[in-house]
Design a protein that fits this description.
Blueprint (H helix, E strand, L loop, with lengths): L15 E3 L8 H9 L14 H6 L4 H11 L6 E3 L1 H12 L4 E3 L1 E3 L8 E4 L1 E2 L4 E2 L15 E2 L4 E4 L9 E4 L3 E6 L2 E5 L4 H5 L4 E2 L2 E2 L4 E7 L2 E7 L11 E4 L3 E8 L4 E7 L1
Parallel strand pairs: 1-2, 3-17, 6-12, 10-13, 15-19
Antiparallel strand pairs: 4-16, 5-9, 7-8, 9-14, 10-11, 11-12, 15-16, 17-18, 18-19
Amino acid sequence: DYFGWEYPEVIHWGHVQIDEYDVALSTSTIAELVDSDELDGWDDPRAPTVASLRRRGIRGEAIVEAMIELGTSTSNVDLATSAIYSHNRALIDDGTDRAFLVRDDSDQGGGAVESAVRGGPEAGRPPVHPEHEDRGRRQLSVEDGVLVEASDLPPEGDRVWLKGYGCVRRTSEGLEWVDADIDVTREEGVDIVHWVPAGDAVPLRLRTMDGDVHGHAEPGVAGYDPDEMLQFERVGFARIDAHEDVETVAYFAHR
């Protein structure tokens, strides 16, 4: 105004708010929450920060691609986390091993239930990756029973398919092997569920944007190094953060 110049039209990204977070994308707000211990730090999974996304296992390339797709604007914009997750999934899916996690506090409620398995093979052998048979199979014993999420257990007398193991029927004494083909899942509506060995499951705490979820991971999870990614089947992708004395800690990335 002082020089009488015409103010140019500013094309920029505006004030970007990431749509899935309850915390505002504001350094002062986040700093206050960290100082008051409402957030554990700038990389708390509930914080809308690059440090938080990185700790969850979301790559920088995924954020960059989502921002490029967003384009420039003359107004404030919302950056959809779904776009970030989509790009990240494309980057990591092929190279990420699969594993099972049975939650004590799943969205469906009920927690983990231990059950004996009788009459069938001694172990299940789900693939390390469903599209890469060359990576081998995991060996999950059922000899000491299995843990299944309560919401996945059928009523007594009904069947369920333990993924990577086979068909079982729920009885008053546990789960009983049923010699059936995978076709029962398509033709007769038998549900496919995940499970872990009851005898040597790994206690795991999954840090999410909605708070910590506790559960039991299959034994092989203990062999993955911090910073490696896993896909917990029917749960989502997660980054291994640490193996502590009493539990493994992982950060949820996305489905």
